[in-house]
Amino acid sequence: MTNLTRRQSLALLGAAAAAPMIPAPAFAGTRLKVGALRFTSHAASFVAFERGYFADEGLDVEFEFFQAAQPMAVAIASGDVDYAVTAISGGLISLAEKGAAKVIGGALSEEEGIDGQKILASVAAFDAGLTSPAMLDGKSYGITQPGSSFHYMGSKIAAKEGVKVSFKPLNKVGAIIGALKSGQIDAWSIVPHIAKGLAGAGKVKIIGNVSDYIPNYQVTTVFTSANNAANERAKTEAFLRAFSMGADDFNAALVDKTAGDEAATEMVNLIHKYVYADKPIEKAEKSIRNGAMRINAGAALNKASVMDQLDWFKSEGMIKDSVTYETLVDDSYVKTIM
After folding, report:
1. Residue 112: predicted pLDDT
2. Cys bridge to 118: 16, 141, 195, 202, which one at CB 3.0-4.6 A?
3. How far apart are CA 11 and CA 2, in angstroms?
4. Domain termination site, one of 166, 181, 212
5. Distance between CA atoms of 262 and 88, rounded to whole angstroms?
6. How many CA atoms lie within 13 A of 219 on its CB side?
């Protein structure tokens, strides 16, 4: 059976129609900068670029890569980046409150039945008894910045277990990995392509699943400037259409595995251009496949999860009580999930 990408299928359909009737994209030549992390969880953007879905919408995309969520939010607010995908952070909420940024959709999600983010312990801490999240009391937990998704996850895990942890801000994911491997911090939580790779190499120990503590967690969102959300609707819709097509291809190839083995291998090779690109594909492939969590179809947004995150930020005194869901989100673009 031949498995076609959505773009290939559309091309075949288009061949049956008269070529002169096909209009040029509405935004032909529109240049965009898209913010991303070099994570498998950002694959929808990579697929949309590599398979020409952005180009089909007339969007000339260039990627700007970051090492944490909050700097990406600042780049959106300053206009250095047009659209981005990352976790909700205190910095993003603050910029939304100031009228500078807006969440417009959902991306990576924890989903029952799909292997998701892992809770990790350093080898030294594990050997000293940190063999489950219940043993986190008094331990150090790595985060990029206060108010990051790592901070949120660690707090929710600690609260459910009734323990207290000491959060250690280390600014960058790479710095957290180094600190965990060397035993300078005791614990962390991260997406599976990183977690399983580190554990498989014997550098850390997996002691739990984030989904056991935060079910249906909307891990990352699609966001843009408040100006784009309010005044550039057609362009924003074009971006979301292309992004969603990339997500569909990714899910079919590596999450639902309905596209066949050849499509899965092709997807791994595509993602490898952006994730673990410094490693041979033979070494990178397993980690890329391990990172295959659900990216929401149609960029649907889990409203209940976003509201839970806002409630946590308020409980920690990181944002004002007056901040609402509508302050952060313009969900007129996508379907919402409760």
Report:
1. 87
2. 195
3. 15
4. 212
5. 35
6. 23
The two structure tokens encoding residue 230: 């309010």
Residue 25: predicted pLDDT: 63
Instruction: Assign 175 to helix, strand or coil.
Output: helix
The count of domains in the chain is 2
- Torsion sign, CA atoms 324, 327, 332, 334: negative
292 domain-assigned? yes
CATH code of residue 165: 3.40.190.10
Give 33's strand partners. Answer: 62
Model confidence band, residue 246 (pLDDT cutoffs 50, 70, 90): very high
Amino acid identity of residue 313, one-letter, is F
How far lies 177's CA from each of 20, 95, 145, 203, 245, in Å? 54, 28, 14, 9, 32
pLDDT at position 21 is 42
Q: Which helix (H) or strand (E) holds 194?
A: helix 192-200
Question: Is the same domain home to 237 and 106?
Answer: yes
